[in-house]
Amino acid sequence: MQKQLPKTHMGKQLEHAVRASNTFGHSKRADKFNDAVNTDWKVYSDKYTDDLVNLGLDFGRFLTKEFPHIRNSFEIGPKEIEAFLEKKSFTCAQDTLKTQLSRLWKIEKCCMRISCSKNKKKFNWDTSNVTVPESKKDAKYRKNKPIPLDVAKVAIADLKEKDSEAGNAVAVSAYAGTRVEESSCLKVENVHFSGGEFNLGWINIIEGPEGGAKNGKERFIPILNKEYQDVFKALVAGKKPGDYIAAKEGGGKLSTARISDALKKVLKARHGDTYLYNGCHAMRKTFAQLYYDITRKNHTRKETISKTNLVIGHGKNRGEQGIDRYVANRH
Q1: What is the pTM of this model?
Q2: How far apart are CA 39 and CA 298, in angstroms?
Q3: b/e string for 79-98 if b means 16 or more Cβ within 10 A?
Q4: Among residues 301, 283, 170, 282, which one has the least CA distance to residue 235?
Q5: Tell me, what's the pLDDT at 213?
Q6: Taking the mean position of all CA atoms in its chain, how far away is CA 24?
Q7: Mean pLDDT of the residues in the chain
Q8: Could you list the residue range(s) of the whole structural domain that residue 276 is in?
Q9: Percent of the chain residues past pLDDT 70, beyond the cut
Q10: Do 176 and 289 belong to one domain?
Q11: Do 279 and 162 share a structural domain?
């Protein structure tokens, strides 16, 4: 089990602000189109809450060590943020650094919301003028690296010998392009073998946290070809409709940590550090590229981009930005 790092006074402040701003169950879409609602501080999902909390605790530890005179969130400024990102640039890819800056902006808004009116006026993190440093992390370790299907097949076979249920979850990610949370939540009753975009069946990622769908968005993933259909038939064989495809002993769903850790071990054993920072999410990229290639044969480029965004769980109107890190070849 990974050792938990201690929480600092500053980190606890940031954590409290984030958790107090969790609005799980509120409609992000409805709020977006309601001018009376300030969405700057609202955190709509438990997953995003955890991501912000973890970043806040990390930032808090950094501040305590490097800027011990800062005791309150309103005392933080762009200098401290730039110093934090500079330190992270040695271990984080460029896209991750940009994401962290965006999340720090959100954390500031959370802090401002729970502060008294006097302290609200003192906030000036000024993230819009913070320069994101160049990543110094070795390019071969970038999380953008897709895991080819051939590599995934061997990993799944290795997992079948060591942890067959984790192997089931990894197979779902490889053959349906699902996030690890979605793979862990998928049940037999949500896999269908007729109809769908290619008349070979489809997978339904259902709404809400128990469906694993990010931000609660339901979506329908087509089974791409006969090989993929055979894989899913094998995954559901012998299971009841309400069973999880990847189940722990006793029938509950498998934890995402168990799935990710098991996959990391078999990839490490076969490939060393080649896929050190890549897991189920990297399999989504391979699936997305294949779906794009198949769909592009009968649709315009714009239509194909929109359809690919929907299948991988991004908004259909996200355009190329939505698939930029998933589909490298957009012919």
Answers
A1: 0.62
A2: 39
A3: ebbbebbeebbeebbbebbe
A4: 170
A5: 65
A6: 17
A7: 91
A8: 149-323
A9: 94
A10: yes
A11: yes
Q: Which two tokens stand for residue 227?
A: 């090989």
Span 158-209, pLDDT tens digits = 999 999 999 999 999 999 999 999 999 999 999 999 999 999 999 999 865 5
d(CA 81, CA 60): 11
Taking alpha carbons only, the member of 67, 72, 68, 63 closest to residue 114 is: 72
Q: Which of 106, 137, 168 is the last residue of a domain?
A: 137
How many domains are contained in the chain? Answer: 2
Q: Are residues 182 and 232 in the same domain?
A: yes
For range 294-322, the mean pLDDT: 93
